[in-house]
């Protein structure tokens, strides 16, 4: 094998082998910030999907009381309430992690960002439990 | 051993350019942060007003009409819709941009989402008007 | 391929040698459609590093194994690899400290593969050219370090050893071929902080782009992976602060600093 062919292969360069979406979602080897990233992405997309669903459901209001009140009666079923708790989790995680991403992304609190993340998640966990209790006792 | 001519110049010396020929300052992330902060406040208000101070956790039709009869409420809910739609679509745009499409594709995505966002808010305004004018 | 080493010929033998370990090593050559893993059963000592183990494998079990290394002490940036799914410098990663009976060794991700564990770093280096990176830094000297006779002053190299671990760990680099990436962005922040003849405004304008400093999603995996305390994530956030405050100043009608 000649020197030249080795050098040429190196400089022409094959295209990089990217991990693709596995680089987003593969849980192996991931650290705290990596988890925050993928969960932020999943909750963001999930809540956005919920927004579209919610806006479609709200169109029942345009059809008058019988259409909307019919929906209200099924919205109190346990399955719905569980879904509501999942939604609250999504909102809480995305919002609280968003505080971290915003502050850090403007160059603030960068050196203590892991501690801030943990503190925000604790607040979120407490809020989630309070919300879940309220949803299942009142709703 | 044969003398090599060294690395092919131009490849090693390639200069990476971000978005084609010229870098384009973007407001996307900053707007994402600002809209996110507003969503945080408005979604909390929205959830409390619609689910946590309401008997049974959900308003029936008569309650909805009564709720929307207050102009302050209408203004806040419309603001909420604008801000949450903006933040959500900016977020989806960010996810798509993470695939590194061409600058032209990025511009097209931005435009499509702008139109989609306006359409969603227009729908919300229409719905609010329809409910509050129900007889 | 599966192979075992005869401990009687273990050149890394110390008093406490003879801990059996399995290494699953990624193998792939130019022209292969996809790679596969070869398993090697060897015995190691407590201070045997992954690089020691790989060199021993190449010396005694499989001379066709392709890998790169140089300094053996995490200064040259050559032996970066993914070991048990984490980006590390193989020369300072002790096999037994990983705590698994099987150790998986792969090349760093998101780069073109030359063969087995060696990647083509051309794409990585090209990112720095736009920044006009410098090698020396003037800040953070040790003023009270005593100098030997005949040495007038110390030079300090920039921290980055260009190992590519940060780009391997970054979730955005994984999917986005146009993202500038943590290493070059950290170099940009250093270039703006200490211009030394470079035009900091030009560097800032270059990275103020959707595929520059704004593409990062604060996963901080790059700073976790970095073996040299570059903190690329911190640098990217500092760049954003510069870009945002510059934008705010021009919005409020201030003159450019």
Which key phrases capture this entry?
heterotrimer; A: mainly alpha; 3 helical TM bundles of succinate and fumarate reductases; C: 257 residues; alpha+beta; Ubiquitin-like (UB roll); Fumarate Reductase Iron-sulfur Protein, Chain B, domain 2; 2 domains; 8 helices; globular
Present the secondary structure layout.
The complex is a heterotrimer of chains A (139), B (135) and C (257).
Chain A (H helix, E strand, L loop, with lengths): L2 H10 L9 H4 L6 H27 L6 H10 L3 H28 L7 H26 L1
Helix pairs in contact in A: 3-5, 5-6
Chain B lengths: L27 H25 L8 H7 L3 H27 L5 H30 L3
Chain C lengths: L1 E3 L14 E9 L8 E9 L5 H11 L19 E4 L2 E4 L12 E6 L4 E4 L2 E3 L1 H10 L4 E2 L18 E2 L7 H5 L1 H5 L6 H12 L6 H8 L13 H5 L6 H20 L6
Parallel strand pairs in C: 1-3, 2-6
Antiparallel strand pairs in C: 2-3, 4-5, 4-6, 7-8, 9-10
Commentary on this structure:
The complex is a heterotrimer of chains A (139), B (135) and C (257). By secondary structure, chain A is mainly alpha-helical. Chain A is built from 6 helices and no strands. Chain A has a single domain, classed as 3 helical TM bundles of succinate and fumarate reductases, CATH 1.20.1300. Helices cover 76% and strands 0% of the residues of chain A. By secondary structure, chain B is mainly α. Helices cover 66% and strands 0% of the residues of chain B. In chain B, 20% of the residues are buried. The model of chain B is unreliable at 1-14 (pLDDT under 50). Chain C is built from 8 helices and 10 strands. In chain C, helix 2 (122-131) packs parallel to helix 5 (182-193), helix 5 packs antiparallel against helix 6 and helix 5 crosses helix 8 (232-251). Helices cover 30% and strands 18% of the residues of chain C. By secondary structure, chain C is α+β, with helices and mostly antiparallel strands. The model of chain C has no long low-confidence stretch (mean pLDDT 87). In chain C, the strands form 3 sheets. Chain C has a 6-stranded mixed sheet with strand order 1-3-2-6-4-5. The longest helix of chain C has 20 residues, at 232-251. The B-C interface holds B 11-19, 23-30, 94, 97-100, 106 and C 122, 125-127, 129-130, 172, 175-180, 184, 205-212, 214-215, 217, 240, 243-244, 247.
